[in-house]
Specification:
Layout (H helix, E strand, L loop, with lengths): L1 H12 L1 H5 L4 E17 L5 E4 L5 E10 L4 E17 L4 E18 L4 E20 L2 E19 L4 E15 L5 E18 L50 E4 L22 H13 L4 E6 L7 H21 L8 E5 L12 H7 L2 E6 L2 E4 L3
Parallel strand pairs: 11-12
Antiparallel strand pairs: 1-3, 1-9, 2-4, 3-4, 4-5, 5-6, 6-7, 7-8, 8-9, 10-14, 11-13
């Protein structure tokens, strides 16, 4: 049952390789082989040796990394050996299992090639003779190496003569059986795909002189490469004839948010203008705002700097707490008396300088004009 299952799994796994054949030889190939196998040491310390069943076979599939080396997966049945041991028990033992190996190829002239391989053989050693009504078996992993010579009948079909040597095929349950094996056989393989054909020279055609392409929208980019053929003439364009845009930082006038002398408290009458700013930020969630605080030129500059910072923080907190604008969109900074809107120390200058300005930064794109 196990042998049949392994055969079915291996053969069905090759079907996608066949279906993927395309133009040009693919790296995938499949094949099968027949041969004879000679188990060594099965008659050491034996009373008599019977007639072996030396016929072996295998199926395999492989993938070529290039024309010289690849990897190969296969299922192999090495036949049976027959003997009677010193324990007077009859043995009829055969090995079968899955092999994985690296294969190398060396092409020769006239479609001939040499090959070599090395890998592992995951085997099951099973005795067809029953002991106390049971077929004893054991499994393990053996090493193998091999060499061969091949001939390509076509680009796809290759015949190879192969030799393989298997080492350390042991079975403790079979009276500590230790065997090696020599295999000689023939293998026929098929590589998927078709060989690429030599390119056919294109006919010589007299050159055709094309008329110079026009520029319908007069933007300096000819129609054959113009991806935006209706660009206004006033717009600056890129190499493909499309409008060049720039990100514009907008300044939003907060209006009448002024503060009393030496105060950072927002007046009740100023909330109408503050609400306008909040509405703008709600409508354009991609915009951010910098709240800039200022002071009149009365008193010490250091104190006025701190006072302007408190005014900026007061407006920033109101935007967050009262109108729900996220703090990640709000920054605040104080400029003290360094940026007066009106010079001097008059009563009017001091009144208008005790203020807040809001600088709104957006990602609005505007066309660059010529």
């Amino acid at each position: 049952m196990m042998k049949n299952t392994l055969k079915v799994v291996l053969l069905t796994s090759m079907l996608p390789f066949a279906a993927s054949a395309a133009e040009g030889l693919t790296p995938w190939y499949v094949g099968g082989g027949l041969g004879i196998n000679d188990y060594e040491q099965n008659c050491d310390n034996a009373l008599t040796c019977g007639d072996d069943d030396p016929y072996a076979w295998d199926v395999f599939g492989g993938y070529l990394f290039n024309e010289y080396i690849g990897i190969e997966l296969g299922y192999r049945d090495l036949g049976n050996a027959d003997w009677t041991g010193n324990d007077s028990r009859k043995y009829d033992v055969g090995a079968s299992g899955v092999s994985v190996g690296i294969v190398g190829f060396y092409p020769l002239a006239n479609k001939w090639s040499l090959s070599s391989e090395v890998g592992t053989y995951s085997y099951l050693l099973e005795n067809d003779q029953k002991f106390n009504g049971v077929n004893l078996s054991d499994s393990g992993v053996a090493l193998f190496m091999g060499a061969g010579v091949g001939y390509n009948f076509t680009d796809n079909l290759k015949l190879q003569a192969k030799y393989r040597r298997y080492e350390n095929m042991d079975a403790d349950v079979l009276n500590n059986l230790k065997m090696e094996s020599n295999y000689w056989g023939l293998a026929l393989s098929y590589r998927f795909g078709t060989a690429s054909q030599a390119p056919v020279a294109a006919p010589v055609v007299a050159p055709v002189v094309a008329a110079a392409p026009g520029d319908d929208d007069k933007d300096g980019v000819t129609n054959n490469i113009d991806k935006c053929p209706d660009t206004p003439m006033t717009h600056k364009v890129d190499a493909t004839g499309c409008t060049v845009y720039e990100n514009v930082t907008t300044k939003y006038d907060l209006g009448g948010i002024l503060f009393a002398n030496d105060s950072a408290e927002i007046r009740a009458g100023s909330y109408a203008d503050l609400e306008k700013l909040a509405d703008h930020l709600t409508k354009y969630p991609q915009h951010t705002v910098s709240i800039e605080g200022h002071a009149s030129n009365v008193g010490k500059p250091a104190y006025n700097m701190k006072l302007s910072e408190r005014r900026a923080v007061a407006v920033a907190n109101a935007l967050n707490n009262k109108y729900g604008i996220k703090t990640t969109r709000i920054s605040s900074i104080g400029y003290g008396v360094t940026k007066p809107v009106m010079q001097g120390n008059s009563e009017e200058a001091n009144r208008v300088n005790r203020r807040i300005e809001a600088i709104v930064t957006g990602t609005e794109k505007r066309p660059v004009m010529r």
